[in-house]
Each structure stands twice: as C-alpha cells, then as structure tokens.
Amino acid sequence: MSQGNSVADAVAVNPLQSLRGVSVLLGVISTPLALWQESFLLFAGLCYWLACGLSWQTMSRRNRLQALVLSGIGAGAALLAWLLANPVDFSGLLKGNIALISMLVAVSFLGLVSQPDLAEGEQLPTGKRSILGTLLGVHFFGAVINLSALFILGDRMSQRRSLSRAQVVALTRAFSAAAFWSPFFAAMGVALTYAPEARLSELMFSGAFLAMAALVVIFFTVRRLSVHERFEGYPLRLNSLWLPSLLAVAVLLVHYLYPQLSILFIITLSAPLICLFTLLLRGSVAAPLRGHVHGRLANMTNEVVLFLSAGVFSFGLQSLLAGQGSLLPFSEFNAWTAGLSYGFIMLLAVSGLHPVIGISLIGPLLMPLQPDQSMLGIIFLSSWALGSAAGPLSGMNISIQGKYGIDGMQIMRWNMPYMLGMSVLVMLTLLVFERI
Predict the structure, then answer these.
(1) Single pTM value for the model
(2) pLDDT at residue 386 above 70?
(3) Cα 221 from Cα 165, distance rounded (Å)
C-alpha cells in the first residue's frame, strides 16, 4: 500500500475522487453490519465495485486486464455451473472477498496513528545495530501499517543517494516476511478467507517461527553485502513499537474471549475504533479522517479491484467444481501435496501474477480433499511472504520500482536465492506440522 495518510491528501481533491473515497468508506462500515443483516454484505460489495468503476480510467492497465480476465472467467464459470444444473447463488459474485477487502481498508486507518518517529537532521546509523534496527522497524511497522512503513523508512534511508542493494534487500525481505504471521497483513486475510477453519494461534505461531528465521537470514545477508558498500539504516526507537505490539495482543485476546467472531471481523471493527480513540486523545479528529477518506481510501481501488475480481474467480470455480470431486492428480492432502501446491502458487508469483490469484485458484481445487485448514493457511501465508519478495510484478516490488527507480527484475534476481532457501524451510515446517 502507498502512503497517503496525511491531511494534505484532502487538498485539491476532485468530486469524483471524493465519491470514490466515500464509497470505500461505506463499504467498510457496512461489512460488520452483515453480522445482523446479510444484505449489508451485498451493499458493501456494490460500494466497492462502484469505487472501482469510478476509477477505471485511472487504474493501472495491468490491474484492469487482470480484473477483466479473472471476473470474466469467474462469471462464465458460475453461468456454466448454473446451465449444468448446479445450485448457484449469484449474489456470491458480489460477496466474494468482501470481508478481506474491508479488513484491508480498516487497517489503512492505523497509518494515521502508528508511524515511526522521525527527527529532522538526525544522522542515519551504520553498523550491525543499524541493520537490526532497520529490519525490526520495517518488519513490525509493516506488519501493522503495511506499505506505508516501507516508504517511511525507504524515504529516510534514500535522502542522500539512491537505495543500495543492501538497503533494498533489507527493506523488501523484512517487510514481506511480516506476511508469515501478521493478523493485519493482507496475507492473513486471504489465508482466513480461503481456509476459514484455520486456527489463528497455529498460523501465527508457525508464521512467527518462519519470520524469525527469515530475519536471521536477512541480517547475515545484509551484513555480508555491507562489507562492500556502506549500509545506512533507520534510527529505530523501541518505545515506538508499543502500538504494533498492543494491536497484535488485542486481536489475539478478543479472539480468545469471543471465538465465534472471525479475525477479519475483529480487525475490521477494532482498527478504525483504535484510530478514532487515539485521534481523540491527540485532539484532532475531523481533518485527519477527512484527509484519509479523500486521499488514501480513494486511491485504494487498484488493490480493491484485484481482490474483488479474485473473489468472483474463486466463486465461479467453486460453483463449477461443486460435487465434481478433486481434479488434482493426488487423492489426499499431506505435507508433500501441500508443498506441491505451495510451489504452484510460487511459480505463478515469479511469473508475474499476484499470489492471491494462485491462492484463489488452488484453494477451491484442494477443498474436496478435506485438507487440514491450518496447513492450508501456512502455504497461503508462505507463498505471499516469499512470492511478494521474488515476484517482479508484486505490489511491493512495483512500488519500489516506481518510487526509487530500481528495476523489478533486478529485485527478483536479488531475492530469488532467499526465496528458494526459505522455501526449503517452509517445506520442513509443513513436515513438522503434519506430525504434531
């Protein structure tokens, strides 16, 4: 996700952009209400599609093409399923991934209140501690405010010159590793959408192990690279990590106390409320929220349309496969078949497709095998964490390319060995998980 959380975003906003922002806001407000009246979910879907329609001309060409292809295949598959006399609830075309999208929108509000402190004129630190501080900073802040953290740290580190290879490796790998475990990351929303019975505690525990291993690997890689080039890191302060830590603990606690509530619902409801409460304590509410709605929310449609179209694609595929049994060349779901599924999603990711496309394809195909939902969630989280780092057209790498002028294919070449090495650890994790 890109920056856009400042009050200045409200300046020079045209009416069309304002309408997009309000449409997205109505979508996120309507989603929790669906617990009491399901029709609110349809209304949220209409709001999100309206926002995407209003920004169709300004949307990236790649996103428009992917949305058309995925939505076309999904709608066609649902129609074919209906012609074949399969039961099809066509309202599912509008409801797919709505809870996930609303979680992403809700999390964006945290960027208003959870940002690392900046001190003007402060010298960038060097040495081992600077590497560690940079990795922890981008990882934990990225786990909460997503791409905004990447840009905050990246802008500060590139003040004097363009980002070095060591800095790019540190930022991209440490940021994407948050997808292994963070409940606020889009990856967790996708995992819980396509593996709804997965246990959050198991996903976060296994994901935290993989993330810690990744950070260790990244630290030694960056230290080796910094032998040949001076590494200037980010001046992290530990007292600024209290809010990301508090948020993660709060989500786990609420989920423990009210297990009937989904994680997506808890985050969708709690993130904006935490933001509102913090802004009230600071004494400024209306201006930051107005700027966020007309700026950040109005500009989220590139992300929203991808998840909307992936939801249509997955719904159509599920409707067509209903009652057909498994079409995969194996009859049971175990660590090895999980590894093959993970490899398939990763292959699509490095080919330039977003991980959510591979997940929305493989998820319905695996369901007839009655897979362990937590193991399924692990492969979804891992493919996102590593596919984002190595995929040349991932949202993160495209953002790095556009903002700092570093070629996406170059980033892929730098991160490919890391992805392959970590994939071995993912496979070992699946083997251990199967035997527990």
Answers:
(1) 0.78
(2) yes
(3) 11
